[in-house]
Amino acid sequence: MHAFNHRSCVLVILLKDKIVRKAGDLTNAYVYEVGPGPGGITRSILNANVTELLVVEKDSRFIPGLQMLSDAAPGKLRIVHGDVLTYKIERAFPESLKRRWEDDPPNVHIIGNLPFSVSTPLIIKWLENVSCKDGPFVYGRTQMTLTFQKEVAERLTASTGSKQRSRLSVMAQYLCNVQHILTIPGRAFVPKPEVDVGVVRFTPLTRPRIEQPFKLVERVVQNAFQFRRKYCYRGLGMLFPEVQRVESTEKLLELADVDPTLRPSQLSVSHFKSLCDVYRKMCDEDPHLFTYNFREELKQNKSKNQERENDKERSRR
């Protein structure tokens, strides 16, 4: 039993070294590690000759162990006891590291073995930062090497037409070059998670494939994938109020030159570019359009119907 545990630990260390190697050459780099936990990847990063490693950990149980690593690597490891979803990284590293967006990526890296519960909201937050060139991307096209549940990793990198193609695929791929660089079986971890893990590398593109505000792109993509198994016009129709839905959806698809009978997963990033550009023009012509929420309208219609029913009931008495 002990021998098995010892071998598992060795395997974990080798894999963590491998994850860090996949991030590229970290010599003299400034690294931001999210969710270091007990510090397995932290050790591997410190062994890669970085100039500075900043870790943000929410769980106070892991802080003493990280503190011991910091004592063993004086001046190299900075620990923040906080939440990665709210931590401001903008001023954490020296100004001199900043690069222009068109230049090569800066010598700043984000590495993280993320808790599955925060991985999707966190990557969406960071993609919005890429779009606005703020947060970790004030330094330039900061590269990210992150672990996800294998299914999420597959969705992030899924190509047009594949079964895993989703909102996440389009949102990541219109802003970044996204590569699924490694799959680690769950049994390699101690304690063992129920699922396999995918390591994904993100490099922001010098120019996004869709040049529209992040929230607008997110809105179009989210609606398109609303009804995954139906034709795309169904979900895209939810961008418009009921009274003009049919007409506006036809106009959107016609001007964007998108076949209404394509499934959401068959829409490429260039399809979404056309849809977002046309939708933007439609919103410019009718500013109320962007704030329209079909769920809100559904709710209002339900309560109106309920009121009518109540009125009828009262008149019968």
Walkthrough of the structure:
The N terminus is likely disordered. The protein has 317 residues and is an alpha/beta fold. It is built from eleven helices and seven strands. Helices cover 44% and strands 15% of the residues. It has a seven-stranded mixed β-sheet with strand order 3-2-1-4-5-7-6, sandwiched between helices. The protein is elongated, with a radius of gyration of 24 Å.
Identify the overall geometry: elongated
Q: Please state the average pLDDT score.
A: 90
Summarize the biggest pleated sheet.
Answer: 7 strands, mixed
The whole-angstrom Rg is 24 Å
| Low-confidence region ranges | 1-9
State the order of secondary-structure elements, H for helix, E for strand: HEHEHEEHEHHEEHHHHH
What gap, in angstroms, lies between the N and C termini?
77 Å
Helix content: 40-55%
Give a count of the beta strands, DSSP E runs of length 2 or more. Answer: 7
Structural class: alpha/beta
Beta-strand content bin? 5-15%
What spatial order of strands do you see in the largest sheet? 3-2-1-4-5-7-6
Number of helical stretches of at least 4 residues: 11
Structure summary:
By secondary structure, the chain is an alpha/beta fold. It has helices spanning 2-22, 40-46, 63-72, 116-132, 150-157, 167-173, 214-224, 232-237, 245-256, 269-285, 294-316, and strands spanning 30-34, 52-57, 77-81, 108-113, 143-149, 176-184, 197-204.
Descriptive labels:
disordered N terminus, single chain, 44% helix, 11 helices, 7 strands, 317 residues, 15% strand, alpha/beta, seven-stranded mixed β-sheet
